[in-house]
């Protein structure tokens, strides 16, 4: 049995993993799915949300485990798990990027997202007047994030999304081959994703090769639309 730590993406919270947590625990695994600062039920003020705050939260979870974990990051969560891996390589057995931002040293999320001409998130982004945070237009949410998800899941997700701090999007990650680079990486690409287009996913995992790339014929949110298949990949990522 393994320990899984599941890191959600932008606007979301630990709630998006509920089906996956249930399935993994049902198979005897230990699972932690924290809310990042300012997300879900976490009360951190949005002006205090940063990539460093995200990473510190994850490192605290890693430090509390009795064994090295499988660390999974979805979407924006990719930059969080990469930076956490740099700080705690000995606490991580495998990194799994679920249609996530897999960045090279010195890159930042917005830099990659701005090159995604097929993605629907940036064209539908609504920035706050002070530029400190953003939301996604309500009418674009289903197509961008939940294209193949049930109406029930979409309604629930829309009710739980929170404004996303802008600072983590513009913060470069700092990773080295010595620490981050020594941990095996798996990439799960979602072939019908409209938030991070398949071409951008491929560009990232080609630039920073992974031990295996696993395709899923889903939208950006397979934890809703295909949780059983996703859990199968998480349990046996090497195939």
Please give a structural write-up.
The longest helix has 13 residues, at 51-63. The protein is an alpha/beta fold and 239 residues long. The protein is globular, with a radius of gyration of 16 Å. It has one domain (3-235): Alpha/Beta hydrolase fold, catalytic domain (Rossmann fold, 3-Layer(aba) Sandwich). Helix content is 32%, strand content 17%. The chain has helices spanning 18-26, 51-63, 77-87, 109-113, 141-145, 151-160, 198-207, 222-225, 227-235; strands at 3-7, 30-32, 69-74, 92-98, 125-127, 133-136, 164-165, 185-190, 212-216. Helix 1 crosses helix 9 (227-235). The strands form two sheets. Strands 2-1-3-4-8-9 form a six-stranded parallel sheet, sandwiched between helices. A three-stranded antiparallel sheet has the order 5-6-7, with no helix packed on it. The mean pLDDT is 97. The two termini are 17 Å apart. 45% of the residues are buried. The protein has nine helices and nine strands.
